Amino acid sequence: MPRDHIWQQISSLLGSAENSITLIAPFIKKDTFKEILEIVPAGVEDIRCVTRWSVPEIAAGVSDPEIIDLMEFDKRIKIYLCHSLHAKLYIADGRCLIGSANLTGKATGRVSASNIEVLIESETSHQEIQRLLATVEAHSIVATSDLAQQLREQADLLREDDDAPMLVVPEQQEPSRRWMPETRRPERLYQVYNGKYGSVGSDVLAAVLRDLAELDIAPGLSLEPFKEAVRGRLLLIPELADLRDTGRLNMKDARDELIARSGCTSEQAQRSVETLAEWLWHFDEVHLVPVGAWEIRQGREIT
């Protein structure tokens, strides 16, 4: 089997299209996308692309938001983002290929150190293909040039930060450590998430970007869904189990548990617990109660 067998499969399918094509892949590199467009017959009227833009992945170099630039030269292209996307599916009219290969040089066999991939041909009418398409459509948003530029800028800043978490590519590698909030300014998260950080100091910005990289929240959310996503991730932190399960958390107990779990000093653990309290105050409905050691309790305090 030739090294570029996957590329030959994709080329053959898309080259036979008459009306429309759909490209669904989490990772799409601009050079590979350009080569795809050269294959698509001129008579095809619609080119629909669904992908995933995540700041850590862009920083790691596996995905290029710059594919949005190609829309300026080919008005048939429409690009959508689906943050939970893992499937790889390529459709030409009523036929499709489904399998493991992204639209990258390594996945398609266009570079020497290529991946081992598989694509299986199927009819688009297959019930599982239809289920996948419906799910992807329900969870997708329209990609824009502004969003592409914003995510690229954040990815570049993350790459320049020596203290940033290791750039982990989801699907390929598990994080080496669990996340605890770093920034003491959680109110800055949504501002930076939206690319508005001209007035944010460099130290605060770096910490916020590191937290956003660990959170890896879908782009383009409005404020309330963003806060809900952060809140959901916070409540997965083991030290907050009591708050999640009983509605209250003793801060001394949380500090002691953090010391036992991570081996950090008492001072470090105290700072982490105080930071967690700041985040919970901003993203959740909680209040502090001076009962022995202070407690965090669910619900806003009525004054």
UniProtKB/TrEMBL annotation:
GO-annotated biological processes: phosphorus metabolic process
Domain PLD phosphodiesterase span(s) in chain numbering: 81-107
Pfam families: PLDc_2 (PF13091)
PROSITE patterns: PLD
GO molecular function, one term: catalytic activity
Domain of life: Bacteria
Alphabetical list of InterPro entries matching this protein: PLD-like_cat, PLD-like_dom, PLipase_D/transphosphatidylase
Entry protein name: PLD phosphodiesterase domain-containing protein
